[in-house]
Design goal:
Blueprint: H1 7-23, E1 28-37, H2 41-56, H3 58-61, E2 63-72, H4 77-93, E3 100-103, H5 108-121, E4 125-127, E5 150-152, H6 156-159, H7 162-171, E6 175-180, H8 189-192, E7 200-205, H9 212-221, E8 226-230, H10 233-242, E9 253-257, E10 270-279, H11 285-294, H12 302-324, H13 352-357, E11 369-370, E12 383-384, E13 387-396, E14 399-410, E15 417-419, H14 422-427, E16 433-438, E17 446-447, E18 455-456, H15 458-470, E19 473-478, H16 495-501, E20 507-509, E21 522-524, E22 529-539, H17 556-579, H18 602-611, H19 625-657, H20 665-670, E23 674-678, H21 683-706, H22 713-718, H23 729-740, H24 746-754, E24 761-767, H25 768-777, E25 781-793, E26 796-798, H26 803-816, H27 819-829, H28 849-881, H29 897-915, H30 920-925
């Protein structure tokens, strides 16, 4: 075998052999009707280069191409069709009918006009219009015969947007804004691009330069933080520079996708962009360079130019194959536009698809063509293969400072991205950061500068637990008007509900009640807190406490009269005992054998009257009848006084504890001294307003029915308003609330309650949880009455938000694990802000020490007086008595015991006679 030593000579010999085979065949003349639209200059230039390429290599390729070009307006189908028919009829009249229509119209009416023309006249067509399977409306119902010669190959700009789908699937993106410029056509992508993917997305054209900022802000207000820009490098730069600085923070992700060569640049201070651009197959790079330099194929983007160039060459070579094999119909029938009547479309058996696919001597300029296999449809599934390089570009102070390759994407309708740096790619993913708006209401939301996010409370702990399970981060802000959300007369919402409707918030957090009207515009999760109603908060009555409160049971003059009666009775008892001949002191001999001998002097009388008022009793009564009558009268008087005092003391303390002017909502509605109102814009306000409206409507309906002239007297009497009035309880209450003025904040409401009194003042109606916490942390407030209009608390999200189901699962899991009960325990029973208030007196409680403590003071005062008296007695006995004793210098002689007793007896008798002269005679007798 002959062996070649020179490689260059081998290549030259192969080319000579290859083209020698072609040269041995007859050169085929191919007539092409080329249809293009205004503005698609890159396609027109590429076709010119392809024709020039064929012309320069005519002998080698055995092809002679005659091009008849028609350019039409994308929106003017009539004039475009007339131009096509004119050129087409000229070709027929010159006996040069078109073998094939090469169509590079992009989309719109112009492209549809070409499809209608080709299918109606049965002319073989190869089109590069945009659209996937079924998007070419005029070719949707092609039969199998027509599918063989009416072919579509999608251009690269129709394939590149599919990378958005691949990125979203890989990075699990839940929201996306896709912006595109005229270099991409997205009309048919609105539904198909992200079909069957749970990603909220918006596909929109890039606006004017002066409107880009507002356009991005509107997209951001739609809760979008993943941006995809498909366009030229200039369009990408304009969009990036129009974005706010905060749009490049960690909770945003930017993807720049282009067909063009070149580097990404933008006047940004600090941003990292995921940048995607196409690259040719490695086997085609040399040929691409030759075609660009030798044949001047330099239109940008080069991928599109190379596509149109290769599409044209493949079309020419496919027609050549049909002609060379004799498969072209010998008597090909062509109808003119005037001959076509809508029913006489020629039937051809041209198998252009087979020859188009099986072109073997075709060298790709950018990438090989990919055609569907088996029975898959050709149209909408054929395209040119290429790769998209994925890299991250860091821009600092307007300059690209770092570019890292992340991976590639093999262009197709269903392939996934291939990432070589998954960690780096993950870092570029937009962090899931939800925007939370709230209203500060302890203990659910408490402002705390020392906390991580500036807030703490029950709801903060709850959302942190949910965030751990769902996997997200959040930023929290207070709503400007401090409202949860209510509907005004114009049908406009405010507060958190307004933020959710306007897509400025993702989550509404706080003690937010679930209400029917709110659920028409937003969604609520399952309740995280029990049913909570409306209750009344008032100022706690300040019960004046006094250690001597037991003395206030009787008036001062009564106490003085009792004291006067005490002294007067004691004096009478002494006087009667002194002068009665039957008293003990005047009948000592008579009562000498009695066990009890009591002489009622002034001291004894005072002691008797005092002890008679006690359970101990007064002791021995006087012997004389008059004295006993005085004692009995005093006993009766004391019994009545003590009984009256005891009864009045209990009643006095009980009445002071029951001094509450309002005990229920009905009490509040019936009185006029105490003003009352809920928070402006709160659910409590809505409740009373709606109840008043219902009463008014019912009254009007009832009145109209009762005054209906068509009713009989009996029927009218049954509906008589004056006999069966409709309740106007809430109507009057709502009117009273409006007159009192609704507080705009909880702090204002608490201030108005504190500035009131128990008799006249202000009562606040609000959520029971808020009021309960205020009562726990403030010793001067109290809850009055039972709860009413009970509703659950839940987390609010945007209507249709996927967060609803995710949060529902997390809350139910927390309920099952009893973690919500622990949070309640923490914030309601172990709250550090709760004050150690004095326990209010309950009706069932006894008398407090504050009101009866004076009794103990009386004991201590009595003991103190007794001690002072003991000191006085000791002093009096030792010093005053001792001064009367004479001490002689010479001691008397010692006396015997009998003498001492006799001396003491004589001394006692002398002293007694001196003090009691009337008893002298009796004493001597004894």
């Amino acid at each position: 075998m002959f062996k070649f030593k020179n490689c260059a000579f081998q290549l030259l010999l192969f080319q000579a052999f290859y083209f020698g085979l072609i040269r041995s065949q007859t050169t085929q003349n191919i007539n092409v009707l080329y249809l293009n639209e205004v503005g698609n200059d890159i396609a027109a230039k590429a076709i010119d280069v392809a024709v020039n390429y064929v012309k320069k290599n005519m002998n080698l390729m055995s092809i002679s191409v005659s091009i008849t070009a028609v350019e039409g307006n994308r929106t003017d189908s009539k004039s475009f069709l007339e131009a096509i028919c004119t050129k087409y009829d000229e070709m027929i009249s010159k006996k040069q009918p078109p073998h094939v229509i090469l169509d590079t119209t992009i989309t719109g009416v112009g492209a549809e006009t070409v499809k209608s023309f080709s299918v109606a006249l049965g002319i073989p067509t190869v089109t590069a219009s945009f659209g996937q399977d079924g998007d070419l409306r005029q070719w949707r119902t092609l039969n199998d015969q027509k599918k063989n010669y009416l072919l579509q190959v999608m251009p690269p700009a129709d394939i590149i947007p599919e990378v958005v789908r691949a990125i979203i699937l890989y990075m699990n993106i839940t929201n996306a804004a896709i912006l595109y410029d005229p270099t991409f056509v997205m009309d048919h992508k609105y539904k198909a691009l992200l079909q069957n993917i749970p990603t909220r997305h918006v596909i929109t054209a890039i606006g004017k330069s002066n409107e880009l900022g507002d356009q991005l802000d509107k997209l951001r207000n739609l809760d979008i933080n993943n941006f995809f820009i498909l366009g030229s490098l200039n369009s990408i730069k304009a969009v990036l520079e129009a974005a706010r600085k905060e749009y490049f923070e960690r909770n945003f992700a930017w993807h720049a996708i282009t067909q063009f060569k070149g580097d990404l640049s933008a006047n940004l201070n600090n941003a990292t962009i995921i940048f995607l651009r196409p690259s040719p197959e490695s086997s085609s790079k040399d040929r691409l360079g030759i075609i660009k330099t030798t044949y001047n194929l330099k239109q940008e983007p080069e991928i599109t130019s190379a596509f149109y160039f290769d599409l044209a060459l493949r079309t020419f070579m496919a027609i050549r194959g049909i002609l060379q094999t004799g498969s072209w119909p010998p008597n090909m029938k062509y109808l003119t536009c005037d001959e076509y009547d809508g029913t006489n479309t020629p039937q051809h058996s041209i198998d252009l698809k087979t020859y188009f696919v099986e072109v073997t001597d075709f060298l790709s300029t950018y990438g090989t063509f990919q055609f569907p296999k088996n029975d898959q449809p050709f149209n909408g599934q054929s395209y040119m293969k290429f790769d998209m390089d994925i890299s991250s570009v860091s821009i600092l102070s307007g300059a690209s400072v770092n570019t890292k390759s992340l991976g590639t994407w093999a262009a197709s309708l269903s392939s996934n991205i291939s990432i070589t740096q998954p960690a780096e790619m993950k870092n570029l993913t937009a962090a899931v950061v939800y925007r939370i708006y709230t209203v500060v209401q302890p203990p659910f939301i408490i402002k705390d500068a020392d906390s991580k996010r500036g807030y703490k409370g029950y709801c903060i702990d709850l959302i942190d637990e949910i965030a751990k399970k769902v996997g997200f981060d959040y930023e929290i802000k207070e709503v400007e008007d401090g409202k949860f959300g209510s509907l005004n007369e114009k049908g406009e919402w405010n507060g958190i509900v307004r933020k959710l409707i306007d897509k400025q918030a993702d989550i509404g957090l706080g003690s937010m009640s679930v209400m029917a009207e709110r659920e028409t515009v937003i969604d609520f999760t399952v309740p995280y807190y029990d049913l909570v109603g409306i209750t009344i908060m008032m100022l706690l009555p300040q019960q004046p406490s006094s250690l001597f409160k037991f003395l206030t049971v009787l008036e001062t003059n009564v106490w003085l009269c009792i004291l006067a009666a005490y002294f007067f009775t004691s004096f009478l008892m002494w006087l009667f005992d002194r002068w009665s001949p039957y008293s003990y002191q005047n009948n000592r001999e008579k009562y000498k054998n009695d066990d009890e001998k009591r002489e009622f002097n002034i001291k004894e009388c005072l002691w008797f009257c005092m002890t008679s008022l006690t359970p101990q009793g007064g002791g021995e009564a006087p012997k004389n009848l008059s004295g006993r009558l005085v004692a009995a009268t005093w006993w009766l008087f004391g019994f009545i006084i003590i009984a009256s005092y005891t009864a009045n003391l209990a009643a006095f303390l009980t009445v002071s504890r029951l001094d509450t002017p309002v005990e229920s909502l009905d009490d509040l509605a019936k009185q006029y001294k105490i003003l009352y109102a809920p928070l402006n814009g709160s659910s409590a306000m809505t409740y009373f307003q709606r109840m008043a409206d219902i009463e008014t409507k019912f009254y009007e309906i009832w009145k109209d029915m009762s005054l209906n002239d068509s009713l009989s007297p009996v029927e009218r009497s049954k509906l008589a308003v004056w006999d069966y009035p409709v309740s106007d309880k809430y109507t009057k209450m709502w009117q009273a609330m409006q007159e009192a003025g609704l507080p705009n904040s909880l702090a204002e409401a608490v201030g108005r309650v504190r500035n009131s009194t128990t008799a006249t003042g202000f009562a606040f109606l609000g959520d029971a949880t808020d009021i309960r916490y205020l009562v726990l942390t403030n010793c001067d407030l109290q809850t009055v009455g039972e709860e009413f209009s009970r509703k659950p608390y839940a987390i609010a999200v945007q209507q249709g938000s996927p967060l609803k189901d995710q949060f529902n699962n997390a809350i139910l899991e927390l309920l099952n694990k009893r973690q919500l009960e622990k949070l309640k325990e923490q914030w309601w029973k172990n709250d550090e802000m709760q004050n150690m208030c004095d326990k209010p007196e309950d009706q069932s409680d006894g008398i407090s020490i504050q009101n009866i403590g004076g009794v103990f003071i009386v004991i201590f005062v009595g003991i103190g007086l007794a001690c002072m008296t003991l000191v006085f007695e000791y002093w009096y006995y030792k010093y005053r008595k001792g001064s009367k004793v004479l001490i002689a210098n010479n001691a008397p002689p010692k006396m015997s015991v009998p003498n001492i007793q006799s001396t003491m007896k004589d001394r006692f008798q002398s002293e007694f006679i001196t003090q009691n002269p009337m008893k002298n005679s009796k004493f001597n007798e004894k």
